[in-house]
Amino acid sequence: MPTKYPCGVRAKVTNPRKRITILLAEDTIADQSLMKQALKISRILNNLYIVNDGEELLDYLHRRHQYSDIASSPRPDLILLDWHLPKIDGPEVLQAIKADSNLRRIPIVVLTSSSSEQDIRRSYELGASSYFIKPMTFDALVEAVNTLGEYWFHIVELPPANGNA
Predict the structure, then answer these.
(1) What CATH code is assigned to 18-155?
(2) Where does the record place the modification 4-aspartylphosphate (predicted)?
(3) pTM of the model
(4) Secondary structure element (H or E) that encloses residue 49, with its range
């Protein structure tokens, strides 16, 4: 039975098989906060790690600089990638990840406000697993995150995070 939350959204309460690690690459603090809240309301069991730009995302994945400790920067099960990141943009980051034999199997969901057919086509050509247009309201975001959670964490099997190539 769906649970009704104060924001008016009905979220399905399910029990995921395991806690998953999500890496959110998002430069906007407000969007980071909204995503944290939406994940919490959607009751997706996760360990959420956040990076602020494309360079930081690649540092995290390659365990460089402040991300050298695996305990504080574990390999993600899923990457939520803002398409318009500073320093190294989403398309370049996506291309670099998919070109790396140790990282290419990590599913990547592109997050963007762009509904440009060119951006959608390019993201899939570069290997994105999904293209997600950010909803305009918080209620719609919670509903979308709930749907993403159902799909990515209950329906499909993700590759083991600790596995290479």
Answers:
(1) 3.40.50.2300
(2) 82
(3) 0.83
(4) strand 46-51
